[in-house]
Every structure is written in structure tokens, then in C-alpha cells.
Amino acid sequence: MKTYLVTGGAGFIGSNFVKYMLEKYDDISIINLDKLTYAGNLENLDSVKDDKNYTFVHGDICDSTLVEKIFADHDIDYVVNFAAESHVDRSIREPEVFVKTNILGTVTLLNAAKNAWADGDSFKSGKKFLQVATDEVYGALGSTGFFTETTPLNPHSPYSASKASADLVVKSYYDTYKMPINITRCSNNYGPYQFPEKLIPLMINNCLNHKKLPIYGDGLNVRDWLYVEDHCKAIDIVINKGVLGEVYNVGGHNERTNIQIIETVIDYINKNVDSSVDRSLMEFVEDRKGHDRRYAIDPAKIKAELGWEPETCFEDGIVLTIEWYVKNKKWMENVTSGAYQNYYNEYYKGI
Length: 351
Ligand code: NAD
Ligand code: TDX
Description:
This protein has helices at residues 12-24, 64-73, 88-93, 95-117, 158-177, 199-208, 228-241, 258-272, 300-306, 314-327, 329-337, 343-347; strands at residues 2-7, 28-34, 54-58, 78-81, 118-119, 122-123, 128-134, 181-186, 188-190, 213-216, 222-227, 247-250, 255-257, 282-285. By secondary structure, the protein is of the alpha/beta class. Strands 3-2-1-4-7-8-12 form a seven-stranded parallel β-sheet, with helices on both faces. Strands 9-11-13 form a three-stranded mixed β-sheet. It has a two-stranded antiparallel sheet with strand order 5-6. A hairpin with a 2-residue loop joins β5 (118-119) and β6 (122-123). The structure holds nicotinamide-adenine-dinucleotide and thymidine-5'-diphospho-beta-D-xylose. Residues 86-88, 134, 136, 188, 198-199, 202, 214-216, 221, 223, 258, 288 line the site of thymidine-5'-diphospho-beta-D-xylose. Residues 5-318 form the NAD(P)-binding domain.
């Protein structure tokens, strides 16, 4: 029985990961430590809340007393650190919390794991700290080329700078202490349960509510999109097969301009959901400050060394995603009205 400490498991990717893992394995237990910021939503975990192999802990990864207690109470085998402030636009307005959670929170987790896993000058075997990182740490590309694991880090936003700093600290624990770590750097994710501040759920929600669709700048910035379940599968493989100390890029060679994404969403909704929605909703607005032009991941290493490949192509993934939001209007209403933030009190009474 392996025990996972998943942080940020009530967010978009973390909640998909917790459910994917509990579905796939009977012989694991997961402790989900989440602060339930605006981005954390326990409704995402409704289907597993009574699973005997799942425990929720409400708290902050920066709280060293709490984190140490979790390690004292449980024999944690793997840490999967999703917890982060994750939205670039918010980081431009309020950088401080990004530095605190994304850097100091990661250091707090590393220290607790290092102490709990120490075995003389070495570490107990079978332990691993997996840092969930992002392609944004590499900065931006022009119209050609790809990010490889050896591309120098050159982040531009406070968000990506805080994530790059965290990556370097995680790497330093390997270089200095030989702590067992891996880092995964994934491209843009999309899929169910993504908070509607990010491009794809925002556009779906605005279309369904006949609101304007804000396109930053000229709309020709390129992102490399991956269906969230494929990211979860990659993390599972890196935990089980990743070579200690290594970084793995995760992506599926699926580049789209923002305009292409928005038009795809509009056209699907127009044809299948609401014929009154059309491209006239598109509206060009002021550009994001320091807006990275293009991200594109080279996933050759994880494919060649660990055998991971994406399984859901964009054409299928975007339909699954739009259909999920159409079927789960209540989820979106709770999120956009703030009602989801009462969920913890209602469903976790007395725990
Ligand atoms: P998210 O914003 O949806 O979720 C973040 C979660 O972390 C929330 O549940 C939130 O409550 C929790 N959290 C925030 N601060 C915390 C703290 N101090 N202590 C404990 N919990 C805290 O983010 P996401 O999109 O699911 O991203 C998850 C991770 O994956 C992040 O580390 C992000 O940098 C990385 N990532 C995201 C993408 C993407 O496209 N979304 C791509 C690559 C990497
Ligand atoms: O309203 C919008 N209009 C718009 O044109 C929004 C919200 C975004 N955009 C553009 C900006 C980007 O070029 O769409 C693109 C995608 O924007 P986001 O969804 O904010 O994602 P991005 O900035 O690329 O960062 C995401 O991918 C990497 C995640 O938020 C990060 O957590 C992850 O690390």
C-alpha cells in the first residue's frame, strides 16, 4: 500500500489526478492537503469523498507544523505537489502570494519530506517528491523550435518566475542532499473542472451566457494544449518509472493560436448547443502585460524513456470538455457565484 500526499488536490488538475489514481489503483491511499483558495473546490471530489483510501486535510502547504504532522501521522511514500497559485493574470496584479505559496510552500514540503525520509546520510528507499511544473518556466518561443528539458529557464511573469524558482529549489535538494525527486513540466491543460478564469472554460461559459469573448492582443499567441487526463497519466508514469533527479517535459504537439481555440469553441456550441452563439461575440481587448508569444513542448524524452504518449487528441478532448461544461451548468453556477466555497462546511461537518 503506497501512500501519496497530494497537495492542491481540490484544484483542476489535482482533482482529476486524485480521481484517476483512486480509480486505477486499489492498493494506494491518498491524503489531499488543500487550502481551498478561490481555485480549490471540494465539489470536484464528490465522487471520492467517502472512499476509504482518500483523506482530505484542509490546510496550507506553507504551514510547517501541519505539514510535519502529516508526515508524522502517515508513512508518506510520494509527494505530488500541485498546490500553487496558477493564474498568470492574477500574478501580474498580486505577485506576493505567488512567491509565498509557489516557492515557500514548496520549500516547506521539501523540508518535511527530507526529514521524514532521512535514513542516516541517505534516504529510505521507494520515496519520491514530484514537483508539478509548467512549460512557462522556459519563457517564450518565436515561430519555430520547441522547449526541451535542457532549454534554459527564462520565465517572464511573476507566476512563471515563482514556478521556475520552485523548480530550482527542488533540483537543489537532489543536487545537495540526493533527495529523490522528479520534475514534470507540462504544457497548457484543458478538460473538466477547470476554473473559468482560464481561456477554454472562460470562453465556454461566456458563450453559454451570450457574453463577449475577450481576446488579448492580436489573438495569435500560441499554446500547446493537452487533455488533463493525459497529464495525470504522465505524472503516474513519472512517479513509478521516472529516473531520480530527472526533469520530464509533458506535451502532445498540439499547438493552436488563441483565435483557433475560441473559434473551435464557438463553432461547436453554435452547431450542437445554441445556434444563436456565433463569432460576433469575439472581442479584441488590451494585451496581457509581458504576454508570452508561443509555448511548444518537445515530449521526446518522456516518450522514449518512459513510454508515455497522449491518448486523447484535441478534436476529441475539446468535445468532451465542452459537453462536460454543458452538462454541469450547476458546477459552473456554483463556481461563478462563489457558492462552492460553502461546500467545505456543509460536507465536512465534524471532521
Ligand atoms: P488550480 O489553480 O486549479 O488549483 C490549485 C490548487 O492549489 C487549488 O485547489 C488551491 O486551493 C490549492 N492551493 C493554492 N494555494 C495553496 C496553499 N498555499 N496550500 C495548499 N493548497 C493550495 O491549478 P491547476 O491548473 O490545477 O494547476 C495545478 C498545478 O499544475 C500547479 O502547480 C500549476 O503550476 C501546474 N500546471 C498547470 C497547468 C495548467 O495548464 N493548468 C499546466 C502545467 C502545470
Ligand atoms: O480571457 C482571456 N483571453 C485570452 O486571450 C484569457 C483568460 C486568456 N487569453 C489568452 C492568454 C494566453 O495566451 O489565452 C492564452 C491562455 O491563457 P490562460 O488560460 O490564462 O493560460 P496561460 O497563461 O497560457 O497559462 C496556463 O498554462 C500554463 C495555466 O494558467 C498555467 O497554470 C500553466 O502553468
